[in-house]
Amino acid sequence: MSESAINAPKGLLRLIILDIASKNPVSGAEISKHIKSISNSMWTPSPGSIYPILNNLQKSECLTEIYSTDSNQKKYGATSKGKAILAIEKEKLKKDLVSNIYYIKIMSELLNITQDELLKIIKSHLQK
User: Fold this and answer.
1) DSSP state, 76?
2) pTM: predicted TM-score of the whole model, two decimal places
3) Cα separation, 118 vs 112, whole angstroms
4) Using CA atoms, how far apart are residues 34 and 106, in angstroms rounded to an integer?
5) Residue 66, Cβ neighbours under 10 Å: how many?
6) Rounded CA separation 19/52 (Å)
7) Could you tell me if 13 and 44 are in contact, meaning their C-beta atoms sit under 8 angstroms apart?
8) Residue pair 83/22 in contact by the 8 Å Cβ criterion
9) Where does residue 89 rank: exposed (0-12), middle (13-18), buried (19+ CB within 10 A)?
10) Which of 11, 29, 10, 16 minimizes the C-alpha distance to 63?
11) Per-residue DSSP letters for 16-39?
């Protein structure tokens, strides 16, 4: 599916990039592949979305370039500043997640979906 198959919240791609880069150095192509995998192919960010964010994170000293001699590929790793910002942003994201759970509850009420049916829908999407 295309990049627009889901409507990702503003800033989510930036956080995902920081999170991935905080674990291991990563290339832009690896970021795209990882997101495609965790989203069940519903979201594959394009290089035109990923690389400007990588550049901005690098300029703001949240990421550093790491050259892989074995693959001759540029990779990015999170700096201590990037990891600190990520920790703060993850706390905010937890609050957003709770808010979205209430929106989902309201939507399920509107659609006359029982809690059990809603849980089945959620589980089916998480297991893909």
Assistant:
1) E
2) 0.80
3) 10
4) 31
5) 15
6) 17
7) no
8) yes
9) middle
10) 16
11) HHHHHHHHS-B-HHHHHHHHHHHT
Spatial distance between the Cα atoms of 89 and 124, rounded to a whole number of angstroms: 28
Joined together, the tokens standing for residue 70 give: 């074995």
Which residue do the tokens 């989203």 mark? 39
Single-letter code of the amino acid located at 75:
K
In this model, does residue 7 exceed pLDDT 90? Answer: no
Cβ-Cβ contacts under 8 Å for 97 (sequence gap 6 or more)? none
78: region left, alpha or beta (phi > 0 left; psi from -120 to 50 alpha): beta
The domains found in the chain, sorted by start residue, are 3-93 (1.10.10.10)
Dihedral pair phi/psi, residue 64, rounded to 5°: -130, 145
- Mind listing the pLDDT tens digit for each residue in 37-96? 988 888 889 899 999 999 999 999 999 998 877 777 889 999 999 999 999 999 998 988
Instruction: Copy the structure tokens of residue 117.
Output: 């049916």
Strands (E), the chain: 63-68, 73-78
CB 82 within 8 A of CB 22: yes
